[in-house]
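Cross-posting from the modeling subforum.

Setting up a comparison between two proteins and wanted a second pair of eyes on the formatting. Protein 1 (sequence, then structure tokens):
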Amino acid sequence: MLKFALKLDGVASFALGLLTLLIRPEVGMPVGWQIGLGSFCVAYGAGVFFLGTRATPDRRIVLLVIIGNLVWATDSILTAGLNWFPLTGIGVALVLAQGLAVLGFAVLQFIGLRREGSATGRGTQPRSRSLA
């Protein structure tokens, strides 16, 4: 499930980035922000998809992806709600929809990480501390 969630996040982020860069729909966000966010999403999407192709994705990197997704989702909700940009009605809907999708990716990735940890025995036991 973890690898599926990472790949899904990667494909969706890459596609959103390409859409933003190539079409730049009128959502009320400055063009410079759209280009920056689109470029980030393309690079992020490729990286997360690559992480999902690994035999065993690095748990620390997966945790960073999950935390990043939670921050992105929170920022999306705040952006739509606090009117940081003069978003159009469609812009508000798109920002909220992608924020909720990113939150969903974070939840799927967290569940997948927990299941993988349970299956391998990692993550279920507290770390022993060395006194030396």
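Protein 2 (same layout):
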Amino acid sequence: MPAVTVEDTTTLPRVPLPVPGTVRRRVRSVTTAPSGFEGEGFPVRRAFAGVDLRDLDPFIHMDQMGEVEYAPGEPKGTSWHPHRGFETVTYIIDGTFEHADSHGGGGSITDGDTQWMTAGGGVLHIERPPEHLVVSGGLFHGLQLWVNLPRAQKWVEPRYQDLRARESVLLASPDAGALVRVIAGDVGGHTGPGSTYTPMAMVHATVAPGATLDLPWQPDFNALVYVLSGAGSVGPEGHPVRTGQLAVLGPGDTISVAGARHQESRTPALDVVVLGGRPIREPIAMYGPFVMNTRTEVVEAFDDFRAGRLGSIPAQHVPHGAVRGESGQPGAQ
């Protein structure tokens, strides 16, 4: 798992120790993500399946993509598709992914990079492995998170953030037994590079076997811990968790995560993504790629997409010989 590692965690700034009176968040539920397929057929775990949206708020959806070792010719992505009303956050741990959108955003991300796309009022985009990875095959592992936008920001201009792995803020637990990568939000006075409309935090932590990480967490944020790989426990009660499981935590101001002393040989440590945000507490109407407040707004989004009002595929991305249809997608005249 090469996503931003360091040889010596003792050289990093430390996560502050819990202060007296700290309330450690207790585990409310643990669910196991079912497996499925996305886009053109790449395997995913549906991290939030079976969890009430009220517990996830302000988050909507998250897929763990892979971990999969592709043979030559197997890597897959998505075709061009629309979004409106939320943000997509794609974090790549292993492998490479390319992004392009109708608003001019795009680029290639790899090993610890993050692309943060605000769909806002509407955008078309595509995600896919680069041609050289399709030819060679190789390891691919990452996740994509959907962050809701409050009603007041659902119609903002689309934007794209290209966050390089080196920009992540790196911290260590007090005993240096855990490496913490802050991608967005504030953790103990250390702020990650991601700029968010919805107040939130996103952290990727690697916890050594037998080590414990106590993360200070904003009391008005919710708290979710998703296990990318390995085994361990969450909360003061030491609730066991393993690969592909999501723990929803209750109120408090500290999140506790511990690595199991004995790990499988292919997972030398516990890797988790810790998420939290200030709940928006607004009505949600979502269908496919649109996350709005009412059913009428979802229907309008589909109408706007079909009418080409969500953007057009940039000329350099239209397959040779294809003609754009009125939705902006390649099609026959």
